[in-house]
Design a protein that fits this description.
Layout lengths: L7 E6 L9 E6 L8 H11 L7 E5 L5 H8 L4 E6 L2 H14 L5 E5 L2 H7 L8
Parallel strand pairs: 3-4, 4-5
Antiparallel strand pairs: 1-2
């Protein structure tokens, strides 16, 4: 008989931009490691002006925090790839709650297989 995977509920805050201060509530299981706030701040500091007006891919999306942070900071759209159906459902709920469904898309897929088939859009789009 298999034992249930222990989970812990945590909140992840969007750091900056139009969604600043909004929170994602995530059930974290042992195999999941959401990107800590300090790491997201450092990542987007490094990316700087590369995010606004450009598409953002959040592969192995998990909580969706990186993709939603990118949308908050002005990304033209975000594609979040995650294979766990529960996480996909939770991320979609957050997208709907935050009102960013017109430019944020969740793909339920294995990231490796998705990347093998992905064709980038033509330059300038």
């Amino acid at each position: 008989m298999s034992r249930p995977i222990p989970t812990e509920k945590t909140e992840i805050r969007i750091v900056a931009g139009s969604l600043k201060g909004r929170k994602l509530t995530v059930l974290v299981h042992p195999g999941m490691r959401p990107t800590p706030q300090m790491v997201r701040e450092a990542l987007f500091s490094i990316l700087g002006n590369a995010v606004p007006g450009r598409p953002f891919l959040d592969v192995f999306a998990g909580s969706g925090a990186n993709g939603l942070e990118a949308i908050s900071r002005g990304a033209s759209r975000a594609v979040l790839v995650e294979k766990d159906p529960k996480l996909v459902n939770d991320v979609q709920k957050a997208i709907d709650r935050f009102g960013v469904g017109d430019r944020t898309f969740v793909v339920r897929a294995d990231a490796y297989r998705w990347a093998e088939r992905w064709v980038p859009p033509p330059a300038g789009r």
